[in-house]
Amino acid sequence: MPAADVRVVPVQRMRPGDHAFVSYDGDDTRWDVLAAFARLGLAAGERVMVFAAPGVPDPEVLAHLGPADDAGRPGDADAWVRSARRSGQLVLSSMRELISPEREFTAVRQQGRLTEETDRAVRDGYAGLRAYIDMHWVRDMGAPIDAMVHRETHADHLFAGRPYAEVCAYDRRWFTGDVLDAMAQAHPRNLLTRLGALYATRTEGLLRLLGEADLSTRERFQGVVGDALRRTAEGGRLVLALRDLHFLDVGCAAELLTLVAAAGERGVRVEVRCSAFHLALLRRLGAATLPGLTLIGVSG
Description:
Blueprint: E1 8-9, E2 19-24, H1 27-43, E3 47-51, H2 58-65, H3 79-87, E4 90-93, H4 95-99, H5 107-123, E5 129-134, H6 137-141, H7 145-153, H8 156-159, E6 164-171, H9 177-186, E7 189-191, E8 198-203, E9 206-213, H10 218-231, E10 237-241, E11 245-248, H11 250-264, E12 269-274, H12 276-284, E13 293-297
Parallel strand pairs: 1-7, 2-6, 2-7, 3-4, 3-5, 5-6, 9-10, 9-11, 10-12, 12-13
Antiparallel strand pairs: 8-9
Helix pairs in contact: 10-11
């Protein structure tokens, strides 16, 4: 998991203006994040550009953007993805193609072209542009690592007030640990590497949950929330930051209220900060009956 700070978010929380780092060490993590990022962009009416690792054929990329079969293997691209490709909403490209006719990578050329593509997407009637860039282009083009680092740390103008979002994906099997650490710090957002997982970070008086709380992660959810409440001193206060939970099912929500009620018997006060949707869910399950519980809706 990337550094445990507020920059870490699930891919589902990517918005226009976001510039995110993600890393992978196998095909499952690489394709899962890409598929979610691309399909969410298509659903939001954005143009999506995918710069896959050089050498990966377009049919393979399209297959991974479609639904998997029962065994989790990529199937054929579904009608929605095929339609988006035909209409030009989904574009499969490469870094070489982007900066053409230039042959040598420069940050100025690449950023200029991405600015042009963002403006073009808006002119074509899309809400904006999102790009997924697999950073294997660095090796393919023989670009110096320093050039890549400079680009990543001098790109704010692409995003500030602009309808553009970008995910830069780094293969942990190829980039050194020092480069990965530097790039994680350079990006305003770091993405969780796996879909369907639950992550937790804890500091004094605060438990932050990210990802998905459902049947598959319920045991972990119960464990981390229960432990945080037990460790809160009698009469103390704990903040549960749930804004970055992409999904909270009814079972986990009910378990949360059960744990809060038990902690309330020791005088522990709990403040839950969550989305409006999760706020409504907790209220429907009877959160208002717990005197030591405060619910606060947060946006973003």
